Amino acid sequence: MWVHTFFFVILLVVVSGARRDVASSDTVYTFPDEFKLGAATASYQIEGAWDENGKGPNIWDTLTHEHPDYVVDGATGDIADDSYHLYKEDVKILKELGAQVYRFSISWARVLPEGHDNIVNQDGIDYYNNLINELLANGIEPMVTMYHWDLPQALQDLGGWPNLVLAKYSENYARVLFKNFGDRVKLWLTFNEPLTFMDGYASEIGMAPSINTPGIGDYLAAHTVIHAHARIYHLYDQEFRAEQGGKVGISLNINWCEPATNSAEDRASCENYQQFNLGLYAHPIFTEEGDYPAVLKDRVSRNSADEGYTDSRLPQFTAEEVEYIRGTHDFLGINFYTALLGKSGVEGYEPSRYRDSGVILTQDAAWPISASSWLKVVPWGFRKELNWIKNEYNNPPVFITENGFSDYGGLNDTGRVHYYTEHLKEMLKAIHEDGVNVIGYTAWSLMDNFEWLRGYSEKFGIYAVDFEDPARPRIPKESAKVLAEIMNTRKIPERFRD
Ligand code: BGC
Question: Which residues constitute the catalytic centre (predicted)?
Fold first, then answer.
């Protein structure tokens, strides 16, 4: 008898152990209850209607019209996905996808045609009100980026982001947005990827406004943007938060930097990379001590002196400014796409931010490619980056505001399906196994759109758009179907598990 009992007990232990394994392995493929899933776009890339109903010109209208040679096939965003007229179609596909949240951006020049708040274009306000109301009527939460690279031309005419006066103008613009939309919008991003749009002041043939002042104009632009972000955050605190109760963050982009070898020098160079690229913006805002990272201040001021400048090319914050800026966040938006290999050394134009940073960047030829030269598929880098952020910034709430893959088109987008499922799995491991506080994820992008200097040649959409067809039909790709399954079940489907 005791033999039977013994085996019965053993069986129970084995079965319950196995159950526990199933439960825990299921958890790591499951999104936490509060986690928000959705998709993202940006105004210039989708809206079109570039000069309709009172919209003013912006720096991307100017670049695409005056320098068609800078953009693949001379493409423009004049019509793009025509979302200005077809926003109900966008909401329809978001609903079909099962998105809980839609991240879109507001075109500053559609709302304030001259950039200033003395002239408010009512048609622009109506457009975004209609979009927001349509989203809410369909149970989708709006997440608004205030600035996704389309500066009103009138403000560029004053020098654009290197001119510190834009910090004040940004605050005035933000006030218009909070006043008009803040009753319904509870998730705000002040800026999208300042690290990328500061490059518009670092190269002659590049992102708008294509001004060639590397190592100077780009740092000035960054400095203004940090001031602007802090002003907007304080504005929300002082005039809107009590009544509206929303959250204000910023979207920063960062690649994982994997040391090329395990040498102390290569590891240090990747740390430089993180500080020069993420720390440049995140250190002043997200650390206890605030201000630019020490390594950034030291290296730029040393290089500036060697190059014969009296002052560092990197502007300085006063002690009061450091205080004013630090802590101006409710969450951190992260755009993650790819990884780099970092080696100790110096390369790049003199002067330039890349040269200042003291790292030589390459990519591993073995990493799978996409249609974009810079985008290699390195999902494990995502988990490592999330852990770096957790450790560096005291585990703030992180919202993944972009993550996505490019190809040249086609509905059977297996490369994109692989990209999303692998990145989502790494993110879930970071959440469940490493304790990183990730609270949401919006895929880039809801649909194919104007991919900046690459025009319509590189496709990031989970919905295909035919840019030859005036009706711009939105057709789900395989990735949209897989993401819909994920959003509806809130799990990684079994067939994609390890
Ligand atoms: C930007 C998007 C862009 C995407 C793919 C991000 O840098 O925020 O506007 O389309 O990456 O290049």
Answer: 402
